[in-house]
Batch of 4 targets.
Target 1
Amino acid sequence: MEISVFGAPTCARCKDVINFLHEKDVGYEYKVIGEDVDHEYVNNTVGRMVRSVPVIMVDGDELSFDKLKEKVNSVDMLNLLEL
């Protein structure tokens, strides 16, 4: 699963996403819009005009934080079932 998070340094919700991914020990790439990437790059990646952060991309698809949590937790459950 390839995860990219685009955010801003002052965004509390961005920090929530990052903390969740850390807690679940999930690899991801975090980029600050305006520092690491420009706004146009994010717009082109997402395929729409981005007006708020965080922007979460999983395997090329944009997901909400709630959908990200569902996806990560379902992968965790599958891993547990395989044990």
Target 2
Amino acid sequence: MSALVNEAVRNDTREYDGVPATVTVKGHPVHPMLVNYPIAFLSGVLLFDILSYARDSSFWASFSYWLLVGGTAMGVAAAAAGMADFFGDRRISRLTIARLHFLGNAIVVCLSLVNLALRMNASAGPVSLSWLMLSAVVVLLISGTGWLGGEMVYRHRIGMIPRGTHE
């Protein structure tokens, strides 16, 4: 994946002075405000899945389940704001790095929904190995897409007000 991301960054060499976010509150972009929650919650799911699986404990599985509910809900909210930014400005949607970020996060939300559906239909008990594996894949993906999001902000100035302007 690293080679793919490095190639995307090299291909997107156009420097922008700033591309403001489409969805803002008093000039502050909403997407970066929301993404911290699914990153933290879904990372917590993996932590509590490991505890539940290792200790064969339904106690830790309940923590994991509720973090998964919150992480998925906040992931959907962050995705809505991110989609508005992605489709709201062609300068964003034509960046390879933005498309990788978008696709990766769409996969994260879908896998989290699948993980949630599997758990909702199961009896209360410890976490299964398949749930733990899904959580691990989600954390790997969200780590990469979070890094891509940072690249867009700090290298391409996506979601930033252009220099010399005030909203």
Target 3
Amino acid sequence: MTKAELVNHVAETVQLPKSKTEAVITSFLQAIMEALHKGNKVELRGFGSFGLRHRQARAGRNPRTGAMIQSPAKTVPAFTAGKAFKETVQQNGAAASGATHDLVTHMQTPFWRV
């Protein structure tokens, strides 16, 4: 789902114009980025939390030339899904994978055995 699709979906759900909905979503995302920039953690109960993870410097290899290069230490944003989010994905994922499994099993069976 793209940001535009998300804006359309939310605008239809809450009965707001798309321009106002886009402004709200943009402000929401900007607030998360600003909080992380300041070093804070953002927790959305039931959804998840946004935080920073620190990666240590490491030695790597340029795949084109094979030369060893040093990758510097850096801080990267990270998202950890909340319990309710994980449970929702598990329930929907289990239902979808079951249907896919039945379809795959059916497709692997020769048509004269169906």
Target 4
Amino acid sequence: MAERLLRMTEQERAHREEHERLALAANIANASRGMWLGGITILAAIIGAVVVVALHGPWQAAVALVGVPLLGAAQALIRGRQ
């Protein structure tokens, strides 16, 4: 009986460790994906602002294209540190 309990405990520990390892890998992948998507969004906004300026569009549109994503990134950085 004691050997059976010990084996069950070892199996539970191994299962828990595997679950925690998979959860950690998923969290790292999600963080990496979020950083890539955020970077792509900011890059697209900057390119859009350059296009608006090059086509002699309103400067307010260029400021909005760059300002909104940058403010969002700054907010994410501030919340990430808390």
